[in-house]
């Protein structure tokens, strides 16, 4: 608790009332965590690397090496294309202006399920060809 109070005060971002509330909440969480049957494991992050290694062991990931990411499907857009957005959908028209449509040359990106953002960790970007 002393370390938490020290860190909160050093930040200088909370009022005295907010600091006291955070300390009360932390104390209540610690007490609740001691109740039997609530948690299987308790991790302390005072030593971040040690905590991280312990977490990986608990999850069975200690010696896990992630496979390289799957190759992305390549889409080559022509230089002359247009883009429009409707709600969470992005429409890419690959037909050059003034050229009659010969085939399915529009792509719809659906970003409504997009999650993540870290490299190789983004999920939920869906696309399909449309008429």
3D structure, described in words:
With 131 residues, the chain is an alpha+beta fold. The protein has 2 domains: 2-58, Rossmann fold (3-Layer(aba) Sandwich), CATH 3.40.50.300; 82-130, no CATH class. 30% of the residues lie in helices and 15% in strands. It has 3 helices and 4 strands. The protein has helices at residues 2-11, 16-33, 48-58; strands at residues 82-86, 89-93, 106-110, 126-130. The protein has a 4-stranded antiparallel sheet with strand order 1-2-3-4, with no helix packed on it. The longest helix is centred in the N-terminal third of the chain and has 18 residues, at 16-33. The model has no long low-confidence stretch (mean pLDDT 79).
Short description:
This protein has 131 residues and is an alpha+beta fold. Helix content is 30%, strand content 15%. The protein folds into two domains: 2-58, 3-Layer(aba) Sandwich (Rossmann fold), CATH 3.40.50.300; 82-130, no CATH class.
Task: Spell out the key features of this protein.
3 helices, 131 residues, Rossmann fold, 4 strands, alpha+beta
Strand content bin: 15-25%
Topology order in helix (H) and strand (E) letters: HHHEEEE
Oligomerization status of the protein chains? single chain
Q: Which second-level CATH architecture of the largest domain applies?
A: 3-Layer(aba) Sandwich
Query: What structural class results from the helix and strand content?
Result: alpha+beta
Strand order of the largest sheet: 1-2-3-4
Question: Any idea what the radius of gyration is?
Answer: 25 Å
Mean pLDDT: 79
Q: List low-pLDDT spans.
A: none
- Helical run tally: 3
